[in-house]
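Researcher: Here's a chain I'd like modeled. Treat it as a single chain, no partners, no ligands.
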Amino acid sequence: MSPQDPLRLEVVRDLAVMDDTSSQEAYDRIARIAQEMFDMPVVLITFMDGQRQWFKSHLGTNRRENTPDQSFCRVPIATKKTTVVENALGDDRFCGLQDVTGGPSLRFYAGAPLMTHDGFAVGTLCLFDVKPRTLTPYQVRMLEDLAALVMIQVKSDRAIGRVDPLTRLPNRIQFLLSLQDMIRADPSSTCWIVLVDVIDNRNAHDVIGALGIDFYNEQVRHAATILKRHLPDNTVYHIGGAYLAFMLDAAKGDPETLIKQLDADLREPLVTSRGTPSALNPCFGLRSAGLMEMSSPDVLRTVLSAAREARLSERLYATYDSDSDDAQKRMYSLLSDLPEALRSQKQLYLVYQPRIDVASRQCIAAEALLRWNHPHWGPVSPAEFFPLVEKTGLIHEVTDWVMRNVMRQIAAWQAAGIDLSVSFNISSKNLFEDDLVSRLAEVLNATGVDPSRLEIEVVEDMNLDNSHVASERLKEIRELGVGVAIDDFGSGYSNLAYLLSLPATSLKIDRSLVAQALTDPNAAVTVPTVIKLGHDLGYHMVAEGVERPETFEQLKAWGCDEVQGYLFGRPMEPVAFESWLATSHQPSLAPA
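Model: Modeled as a single isolated chain. Structure tokens:
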């Protein structure tokens, strides 16, 4: 069978043995045994496809590959038998090879074919010397046994899943092994790691839902083909999903030019096998560092983080930044610590900010705000951890924690004769929980709180726009007797549909608008207009972020019902809030 036989080439391709960036330690170990056993200066473990012979292990030479037509190994691969050449100058098959006639003037060669279980020769374990040599029959058997060990290692590599079945590219495991091999070979060297995010994951579910998983997979395979075409001397890895990666020698310069070329080709229209036109939307994450700095499996997370940054900022690529990565690791650390905080009695707590009736200047309500005193990080702002919490199932637990503790506080204040309403925020995600209203009713019943003393605040959100589910859920909350406020109105996504469709009782004007009410002409028009429109629609109007007396007076002139801000009081823990209430702004502070 010829080394160019299509079936043999298909087997070589399926084994994915031609795509390693350097010798792997397991193969080097076998080669070292052969070198000691036969006292040979050069020992190679090679694999051969139709274009090149790849030296997977190369003891005694810096060369990494050869062409099949100039290779001794084409003979044992074709014959599937061990070939021993005692003196190549006297052998017509080899005397014309460059390695014989020029440098390094090889004379001795012995090559045992690497055989698959179904009879294909995919490479060789071979020995070289610059002087004529002989091998005994026993030594030939030992060489063949070592060749069998090589194939056991190849099968082991396949068995533990180092090749992705979709793209036939080395996978994440092989990427990390290759990186370790590079570190062993030259710990002082540096390289670029480039991760390609082929498909915008924000749209991936829609693509799969509309066109099927095969369409998605075809796009990934197409991207892999383009990368391999641009990187014939580098290994391309499929590290999962729509993520491909490769490594570049940092000594060859910045990869920006290559990235722009890849981007241009990846964005070329593709007509899939189904005839569906498509175009990829790639972005790239980069990291350049010494190999020892990238020895951890964490390196893939860092380039993935950079690619995510590029995607979110709509840039072609982003380079790993340790500061932003530290911030992201902190955020995920906080998220992993939150379940314990929910169980603890000492970490999470509520503070209460006064809400002031404009006409009487009396405190008539308070907004409950969540705080976290982390045992390691100290005080953590909700602005830091809450956006991530909203994307996880923890939003359910956090909302329940706040709900229970707010109503316990209302009950305690009612028992003490403090007649205050209390509001707290829930996420728009909570409104899509089927049991939200039943949980709320259960806590109301358990604490004996008058529902009219409670108000739920919902931040305006695109997820609620025209949402029948959200509207029905808020209607059910209102039927319990609990108030509903639209919070942060005017903070960026303001839709009249909120005012017309959501069954709310209060509208809270965002602090960013209130802060500019006296200085920005647009805000000076918008705020009174919103107040009047809200009143016409039956809303109780609340202004947030009031910090200056003149702002309060202007809001009073515009007819605002209620204000909240540092002018009257900062968020306070219950005891401090009660002391503040006892010395000022007390609408009804009755004895217990």
